[in-house]
Amino acid sequence: MKVALGCDHGGYHLKNDIIKHLESKNIEIKDFGTYSTESCDYPDYALKVAEEVASKNYDFGILICGTGIGISIAANKVPGIRAALCSDTFSAHATREHNNANILALGARVVGPGLALDIVDTFLNAKFEGDRHINRIDKISQIEKKYNA
Length: 149
Ligand code: RB5
Prior knowledge:
Layout: E1 2-7, H1 12-24, E2 28-31, H2 42-54, E3 60-65, H3 69-75, E4 83-85, H4 89-99, E5 103-107, H5 113-125, H6 132-148
Parallel strand pairs: 1-2, 1-3, 3-5, 4-5
Helix pairs in contact: 1-5, 2-3, 4-5
The chain binds D-ribose (RB5).
D-ribose (RB5) binds at residues 8, 10, 42, 65-67, 69-70.
């Protein structure tokens, strides 16, 4: 499994915790920045990771900002991206099972590092259930096509 990570300054420390955690499990990762706590713009990192995931260079993305809101909104503008902002483990597995989410967004000012790592593990280990959910995801793609034509 290959995971692309990105964050703004608000997510910098949590991203490092997640990277250490994933590396300890021998999961292949790439860090697309930001690389310090200097103030920056979350859409820049959302775009980098979302394009990598949409191009299928990575299986999943993990994006972190202060709330997780801005970076998930930005990532969801890239066609093919289904970024889910999760602050609990139920949402983390449900969004993989039902929405086939391909990016997990986290708010570093919302969840502590212990819960964040559980959310990451839950998200990465859950499987898309297919079945009735396929038609619903196809309808999301149709919305993208309608407005990107
Ligand atoms: C940065 O201060 C903050 O606005 C950002 O990390 C995020 O919370 C935006 O949604």
